[in-house]
Design brief:
- The structure is a single chain.
- Helix content is 60%, strand content 6%.
- It has nine helices and four strands; from the N terminus they run ββαββαααααααα.
- The protein has helices spanning 24-41, 66-91, 96-101, 117-120, 125-149, 158-187, 200-207, 210-214, 217-242, and strands at 4-6, 14-16, 49-52, 62-65.
- A two-stranded antiparallel sheet has the order 1-2.
- It is found in: Secreted.
- This is Prolactin 2.
- Keywords: Hormone, Membrane, Secreted, Transmembrane, Transmembrane helix.
- Its main location: secreted.
Length: 248
């Protein structure tokens, strides 16, 4: 009996011991799993792969590293902030009366959301991740309400109405993506599981608060544009702290 040569990541050109032919498939499968596990354990953070499928049960799934998945979340947040900026600048620039009436407070103002990069970098990873999720949760319900009621603006173009709907959908998608990234980072030990019990009810309370619905459209879009910029910045800082690279 001759040796059987097996190639798997991390165990290249490895020869199995001489065994009966009937045992080779079972032994080969076990050995492949062992080598794959060792290969994954030897990779840097972000090397574990996540299946991305168009729909559940889809056979044409793509596999992304957690680092690449994080990049996608950041790109999504970039597009979201660009959309909100375009909608704000085209339709909701304030007039003198609006500026005089507004107190400058958003419905998320009670949340501690630091502005300075140096201060943000000092926040523990878990707390920064939690803050991003809280901000996204706090906007889900108000944006859905805004999308349903923005039709009363007869002067808005179909393109602007489409942007408003896109923003509402994208916040939901961004939160779902961030939750997936968080789950994978926890399973990899990059961040602790302490997020599981942190203030979900507080975030939910903020998201259904009447404060957002009582704001004028200008105030609403101004506040969302501000918070989407914060989410964008926090995501980039968090990613650079975990996976330092050329873009940091």
């Amino acid at each position: 009996m001759e040796a059987w040569r097996l190639q798997v990541p991390g165990c290249q050109n490895t020869s199995l011991p001489r065994v009966p032919f009937s045992l080779r498939p079972t032994l080969g499968l076990c050995y492949a799993w062992l080598c794959a596990l060792l290969w994954l354990l030897g990779k840097p953070p972000g090397a574990v792969f996540v299946a991305i499928c168009a729909r559940q049960g889809d056979s044409s799934c793509r596999f992304l590293s957690v680092s690449d998945l994080f990049d996608r979340v950041i790109q999504h947040s970039d597009r979201l902030h660009s959309l909100s900026t375009a909608l704000y600048e085209k339709n909701f620039l304030p007039n003198g009366n609006e500026l005089g009436k507004w107190t400058g407070k958003c419905h998320t103002s009670r949340m501690l959301t630091p502005n300075g990069k140096e201060y943000v970098q000092k926040i523990p990873r878990e707390e920064l991740t939690h803050l991003i999720l809280r901000l996204l949760q706090a906007w889900k319900e108000p944006l859905s309400h805004f999308d349903q009621n923005i039709g009363h603006h007869q002067e808005l173009s179909s393109d602007s109405l489409s942007k408003a709907k896109q923003i509402s959908n994208m916040v939901h998608e961004l939160k779902t993506g961030m939750e997936k990234v968080t789950e994978k980072m926890q399973s990899m030990g990059i961040i602790s599981n302490s997020l599981n019990g942190m203030g979900s009810s507080e975030a939910a309370g903020l998201s259904i608060s009447n404060e957002a619905n009582l704001m004028s459209d200008y105030e609403f879009i101004h506040c969302f544009r501000r918070d989407s910029n914060k989410v964008q910045s926090y995501l980039k800082i968090l990613k650079c702290r975990i996976w330092p690279g050329n873009s940091c």
